[in-house]
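User: I'm putting together notes for a lab meeting next week and I want to include a structural view of one of the chains we've been expressing. I don't have a solved structure, so I'd like a prediction I can at least talk through. The sequence is below, exactly as it appears in our construct file.
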Amino acid sequence: LYDSNRDIYGKIYKISDNKITQNNSKKALKIYGNQLGATMEKYNGPYSPETEIIYFKEAIEKNDKNGFAKLDKNISTYKNIIKDFLAIKVPSDLASQHLVLINALSKFMEITKYLKNYPQDSIGALMSLKQYYGNQRKFVNSVTFIFDNLRNKGVFFKEQPPSFEKSWSDVKKEYQLYLMSLPKLFGTLLTITIYLIDNSDLPGLPF
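Assistant: Thanks for the context. Below is the predicted structure for the 207-residue chain, given as structure tokens.
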């Protein structure tokens, strides 16, 4: 169950968990960028990152306990992305930001586990949502840093998909849509909060 005295984290990876190369040439950076982009594109589908919020919301609105089982596939997606990210050879100049990406994904996976566990721990599910969007910003900011760093070093991706630039373009569009949809998202959180209060035996929520 949720512990209100701590933040939610999954496994915390260390820099030594990455496959780091001291080769920071344009060629090495371009290979890294394309591998990163290919991985992000590989998992773009019905259970891609962030779709867990959609399935969680649907299960809440329909009061469908079985609907939370869908989140197992989201958890599996995060697990596989992390595995693939750890297999990429990372130029040392980008190693710290690559690690930020991996730990953000690990936290997304842990949060999704809390969302899936809503029928047993509704408070934990709600509190995990409070940390979701901050973690999302951390992930996007890290992707932005990597992309800008590559651009500043003269590394561009225009040959063929899948490429980092194509995947980054998708991420950027999603983030812009996210910013535009904030009022609706907050409305969703408010709806879920009210639902939890109305269906909880507890005197109140620990805000």
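A couple of points you could mention at the meeting. Confidence is low (pLDDT under 50) at residues 178-183, 200-207. Strands lie at 19-21, 89-91.

User: Perfect, that's what I needed.
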